[in-house]
Amino acid sequence: MARWSLALISPVPIDDALASELAALGRVSHVLAPNLVHYLYLAAAKERYPEARLLGPSGLDRKVPSLTFEPLDLESIPALQGSLAALPIEGAPKISETALFHPLSRTLIVADLVFNIETPSSWSTALLLSLTGTRGRLAPSRVWRLFTTDGPRVRASCDRILAWSFDRLIVAHGNIIPSGAKERLGQALTRIGAR
Predict the structure, then answer these.
(1) How far is the C-alpha of 58 from the C-alpha of 60, rounded, in Å?
(2) Residues 51-64: what's their mean pLDDT?
(3) How far is it, in rounded angstroms, from Cα 155 to Cα 152?
(4) Which stretches within the chain are classed as H helix?
(5) What is the DSSP letter of 151?
(6) Percent of the chain, pLDDT > 90?
(7) Coil/strand/helix, residue 2
(8) pLDDT one-digit tens code per residue, 99-113
C-alpha cells in the first residue's frame, strides 16, 4: 500500500526497477521541471505516470509543445501545501530556475543554481567544470552571468533562499550535502548576481 504522495523533480530515465522502488514509497502525483533547462525526461515521466500533474516555469511549453504545464505555484496545490515550497530566482528569465524547499527534512533542492561535482568522471568533464568555475567545489556556474539580466534581483532571490531553515542540499549536478549546507551555500553564492 502506497504511503506517500510523491513529487518527481527533474526526473531521470525511469526503468521498471526504479519505478518499482518509487511505487514502494508511494504514488507519483506530481512531476516538476525546476527550470527551462531540465526537461529532457519529462515526457517519459508523464507517459509512465499519466495521472501526475506536470508543473514547470512559464515558457517551458514552447520547448516541449507536446506537454501541458501548470505553473510552479505550489501554494495553490493542496497536496503540496506545507510539504514543499517554491521560490523562483528572479532576474534570470532565460533559465527561470525555481528553488524548492522540503521543510520536514530541512532539504533545499536546486537544479542549476549551484554545482557540487567533487570528482569529475573524465578529463573532458574536469575541463568543462574548470572553465565554468565549478570543478571540485560547491559553486554557481559562470554561465549564470549569461543568464542574468538583473543582478540585484538574482541576489535578492538568493537571500530569500538563504532565509529558509535548511541543513541538507540536493543539487542536480553533483554530490548531496547531507548537513551544514546552509553555511556552505551562503559562501558559494557570495558572487552570484554580481555583474
Answers:
(1) 6
(2) 94
(3) 5
(4) 16-25, 42-48, 60-63, 123-132, 144-147, 151-163, 181-188
(5) H
(6) 69
(7) coil
(8) 999 999 999 999 999
CB 11 within 8 A of CB 31: yes
Distance CA 156, CA 162 (A): 10
| Three-state SS at 148 | coil
Grid cell for residue 38:
531540465
Number of H helices, E strands in the chain: 7, 7
With b for 16 or more beta-carbon neighbours within 10 A and e for fewer, the 100-114 pattern comes to: bbbeeeebbbbbbbb
- The length of the chain, given as a count of residues: 195
Q: What pLDDT is stored for residue 1 in this prediction? A: 45
Find out whether 164 and 101 touch, Cβ atoms under 8 Å: yes
How far is C-alpha 75 from the chain's CA centre? 17
CB atoms near residue 82 (< 10 Å): 11
> pLDDT by residue (tens digit) across 13-44?
999 999 999 999 999 999 999 999 999 999 99
Instruction: Give CA–CA dist 35/9, Å, rounded.
Output: 10
Q: CA Rg, the chain, in Å? A: 17
What is the full DSSP assignment across 58-97?
TTHHHHSTTS--B-S-GGG-TTTTTT-EEEE-TT-TTT--
DSSP state of 9: E
Q: Which domains does the chain have, with CATH numbers?
A: 1-79 (3.60.15.10), 84-195 (no CATH)
